[in-house]
Amino acid sequence: MAALCESFTLCGLGPSGGVGLGGGLLALEPGPDPDHVLLTDRGRTATLFKVSDQKPLGGWSVKHGQIITCPVVCNFETHEYIAVHDDKVLRIWKNKDINLDKVFKATLSADVYRVHSLPNGGPVVLFKGGGVRTLDVLLEAPQQEIENIISDEVIKWSEAFTEGQQPVLIFATEKHHHISLTDSNDSVYKVLIPLQQNTEEEEQILSKSLLLNLSVSGSVLKGTSFVVVDKDHIAVLGSLAASGEESKECLTIWNTKFQTLQTSKELPLGTSGQLWCYEEKFFFTHGKVLTVIMYKCETSSLAAAVGKLKDSQTPDVSSFVNWNTLGDEELVVSFQSQQSVALKSESKMTLRSKRNTVAEVQPDTLSVGQLLLNLKDASTSVFEDELRQLVSTAQMPDFQATIGCVITALINRCKTNPKYYPRNFLLHIVQTRDLSYSLCPDLMAVALEKKDVHLLQICLQQFPDIPEEITYACLKVFLSISEAYLQRIDVNLESVICYIDIELNNKEVKTEIVENGFNAELEQDMRDTKITKETHRTADGEFCPVGPQKAALLNAVLHSAYSETFLLPHLKNLPAQQAVLFLRYLYYLHVKCSEKINTTLPGIRSPTINQVMDWMCLLLDAHFTVMVMLPEAKELLSNLHKFVRAQVRFYSELNKIEASLQELQRLHHQKDPQTYSIEVLELI
C-alpha cells in the first residue's frame, strides 16, 4: 500500500522567494544531514535547507558572469560542498565559508558533466567525454588528461551507487541530433545491466522488458519524470488525461508488482517536470514554489494493491511543521512532541502558561524554536535580552540557522508592532555574524520600508546572494533620499573618504590641493553653514554630483553581485531623473579611476573600474532612448562620448608600441651583462 501524506512549501522559486532561484531549479541533492537538502539554481546560487523547519541554513553564490553548470553536492565523508562552474572550474568549501571566490579552486582539463557523491564511497566526477575520476585522484593533478570514451554522443542521464563496497557509475547517451529512445512516454521499461565485466565482448546489447503501463480506466499518464520508491513502487510526475478531456498534471504512485495506480494528487499550478525523492519525501516544483510531500509505502500485497487493506496507521509528521501556518497551541503541541527523552519519560506533565514556562524552564534545556515561541509575548526588554544571550552563545549546532531564526523573530515583532524596530541590535548581528540574504530574506525588506540605509549598506556589502529585485530597490531608495537627510544619519564612508574629502562635521569640501595652506574661496565655504551645492572636482574639472554619504551608499550597490538578465528589467523602471543622477556619478567615478595609473580608486571597498563600466553599460542599455530625449542629459552623454573616445585613442597608441616593448623585453632576457652598462635604444 502507498499513500501521499502531509505536504508543505519548502521555499519560493522567484526573486521574491528569498533563495535566489529566479532562474529555475537545476537540481536537488541530499545534504550532510538526513533533514537537509541542497538546492542548485540555473545560475549562480546553491542553498542548504533544513526541511523540517522550511528554513535556509546557508547560501553560496559564484560571482557575476560565472554559472554553476552541474548540481552542487555534499562530500559526506568531509562535510564539504563541491561545485563546478563554467564547466571546468571546481570549487570546494565548508559551511563556515561565505565568499566562494576565497575557497579552494581547481581548473580541470576537460568539461565536467556531473559530480556524484556516495555516502560510503566519496565523490566521483563524470566528464562530458565519458571519462570518470574519483575526486581524490582528480585533486592530485587537476590538469591531468581525461580520456574520451564516447564520440558524437552526449550524456543524457547518469547515476552512481555502491555495489559490494565498490562505487558504480552508469550513464546513458544519445547521438547528436538523433533521439535514440523512440518509445512513447506512457510506459516504463526495465533494463538489467550485468556488473561483471565481459572480457570477450566490447559492446553488449541489453534487452528491455515492460515494467509498467501508465494507464488506468481509459486515462493515460504522459510521464515527464519518475523515481523508484522501493522494489515494488515507483512515483511518476506527468499529465493524466482521458479521451476528450483536458489533461491535468499530477503526482502518482504505482505498484509495479500488480500494475496498479496506488494514489495520485492533482497539481493545478503546473510543474517543471522535475521530481526528487529523499528520506520518504517527494520534492517537486508546483507553480512558483518548491513543494514537499511525505509518503508511506508498505510491503506489497494484493489486498493493499487493490485498496482493501485497512489503514491502521497514520504517518508520523510531528517533526515536519509549517511554522508559518500553525497557531500558538499547535506550535506548543508540536514542540512538546520533540522534547528530550528525559521529559518524555515523565509519567505526568501539566501544561503551564507561557509566562510560567519562560520563568521555570531553563533556556539551555529548550530548543531554539521553543525558546522563541515562549518569548513571543514577552516584553521588549526581556525579548531582546534573551535573544542577545542566544546570539552570544559561543558554539552550538546549526549556528547560522539559529542566527537566522533570531533575525526572523525580530522581524516578525516589527511586523506586528510597527513602532518597534531594533535597529542597533539588527545592525550588530549583521556586522558581527557571517550571514546571507537567504538566511533572513525579510530583513532587507523591512530595512527598505524603514529607509534604514546604513543597515542596507552593510547588507549589500556582506550578503553574497541578494536578489536583483532587492538590489534595485536599494538603489532607488538611495537615489531618492535627500542629501540633507543623509547628513544627519550614520553611513560608513570608508569607500569614499580617500577620494572625496570630508570635514569633521561631515560637510564636504573640494578636493583641490591648496598651496601655502590658504584659499579664500575654501575659507568662505568652511565658514558657511549652508552649502547650496555639494560638489567635488576631479583633475579635469568634473564635479561629483552627490555628497559623500550618498556616494558611499551607491558604492555598496556597485559591489553587489547581480545577473544582467534579472537586473535589467528592474533597472528600466528607474525614474529618468534618478537614472541621470546615477549616470553622472558613474561618469565621475570613471574619470577618477582614469586619473590613476592602475585605474584603481584608493580606500576600502571602493568601486573598481570594471564595476563602474558594467553599471554604466547597464544603465545606458536600460535608459538610452529616454536620455537622448532629456535636455539635461545631452551634455553628460556628449562628455561621456568624448572621454571614452579619447581613451580609445590613447590605448590604440599604446597598442602600436606593444610589439616594440615585447621585442625589448626579449632582447633584455637574451643578454646577460656581467658588468654595469648603459644602453640607449631608439624607437622608430
From TrEMBL:
Task: Please report a single Pfam family linked to this protein.
Answer: NOL11_N
Its Gene Ontology molecular function terms?
Answer: RNA binding
Entry annotated with the keyword Amino-acid biosynthesis: no
According to the UniProt record, one GO cellular component term is: nucleolus
Q: Where in the cell is it found?
A: Nucleus, Nucleolus
Domain of life (superkingdom): Eukaryota
Domain named Nucleolar protein 11 N-terminal: residues: 1-178, 183-296
Q: Tell me, what is an example of a GO biological process annotation in this record?
A: maturation of SSU-rRNA
Keywords for the protein's UniProt record, in alphabetical order = Activator, Nucleus, rRNA processing, Transcription, Transcription regulation
Q: Which residues form the Nucleolar protein 11 C-terminal domain?
A: 370-683
Output this protein's name. Answer: NOL11 protein
Q: Which organism is it from?
A: Fregetta grallaria (White-bellied storm-petrel)
Q: Gene of origin? A: Nol11
